[in-house]
Write a structure and sequence with these properties.
- The chain has helices at residues 14-17, 111-119, 121-134, 141-145, 154-192, 211-214, 302-308, 312-322, 332-336, 345-384; strands at residues 10-13, 18-20, 37-38, 67-69, 74-77, 86-88, 93-95, 99-104, 148-151, 207-210, 215-218, 232-235, 239-242, 256-258, 263-265, 275-277, 284-286, 291-295, 339-342.
- The chain has 409 residues and is an alpha+beta fold.
- Among the domains are: 10-151, Adenine-n6-DNA-methyltransferase TaqI, Chain A, domain 2, CATH 3.90.220.20; 207-342, DNA methylase specificity domains (Adenine-n6-DNA-methyltransferase TaqI, Chain A, domain 2), CATH 3.90.220.20.
- Strands 2-8-5-6 form a 4-stranded antiparallel beta sheet. A 4-stranded antiparallel beta sheet has the order 11-18-15-16. It has a 3-stranded mixed beta sheet with strand order 3-7-4, with no helix packed on it.
- A hairpin with an 8-residue loop joins β5 and β6.
- This is Restriction modification system DNA specificity domain-containing protein.
Length: 409
Amino acid sequence: MTRSLPSDWTSCAFGEIATIANGQVDPKADNYRNMILVGPDHIREGGGELVTPLSTALEQDAISRKYIFKKGQVIYSKIRPNLNKVYFAEIDGLCSADIYPIEFSRKLVIPKFSYYVLLGESFFKAAVSASMRSGIPKVNRDDLSIIEIALPPLAEQQRIVAVLDAWDQAIGQSERLIAAKQRRFDAARVRLIEAYQASGKGSNSWAPAEFSEIAEELKQRNTAGHGPDRVMGVIKGEGLIPMRAHVMAADLRRYLVVPPQAIAYNPMRLNIGSIAASRYDEDVLVSPDYVVFRARKSRADPNFLRFLIGTKRWRDHLITVGSGSVRTRIYFDGLAEMVLRVPDVREQKRIGQILTAMEEDLKTTIEAASALRIQQRGLMQKLLTGEWRLDERFDPSPAPRQAHLGGVS
């Protein structure tokens, strides 16, 4: 430990207080085939609940031998320890050979406390460092056995668990809220836009329009002399984000200008969904290899156009345009003749406003959940090193969401 521990804490090696399971079983055997089987992909990055849906060894057609894990044990993915995949088992089950089931000495360690130790920054850094020394993205038993662990008295372990569990529950509630809001947004997008793209809809008042009628390509170059701080790239799932200096050209004069609310994409990656609208209040730049377009004034609402992209009709058109190509490049001309159905601009604006408000609400909830995770990790570091103490005055009895740091010293 780089920091001195409180006088009533002890320090020991992982191997002195923990046992990693040995011996594997046949998942095809009657005793095991109906047990839940967990692989590294089922454990959420950064720890927490298992990624669902889960299935049995039989349902997964498991053949190779597996470890058994028991409720109250910690299971830890030895593959790519930088992902910090740790789970506190609330069920009995089987796990792949890439996962270690770990049992801690219950005389020295409260089971749930051991879970937070493995998630903690000190253990995480030591495991990642060991994997880097070996040159293989995994950590073995010997490497784990020598990692140093700081242990507070059992009573304080219990108090630490009570606090960290409160954050876990708050994060879990946030994640469930995010999932619910995502489902609501997806359903609204289908109801307000997707459903009207079906040409056979009897009462469909939306008129068919070629894409070039509602969108126009922009080819303006960087004649204003904007610098590297304005250069963006499209990352799927993240949108337009700043590019690193080493991947941009020294001369930015040929770079394309993306005005606010305009849309940009890389022609070679459009078929995988790498396309984004600018959320910036000022002009930004993208590589001259990109395509930039925007909603035609008086014909399309920018927000509506943004949500229109990605509908089934859009995706089907991309497949048609790109069929037969070894390396698909889809330029604006390849989009121009795509026929989509659109309402009048007033209705487009109404729909765009509704979906934008729902999208912003979802984004706010995601950011709040991210802040909770950051807070928990900072708190975990303080509590697991003894920098912050929870003495006997701390009362873990209130409901987790009401737990506080009373009694911190």
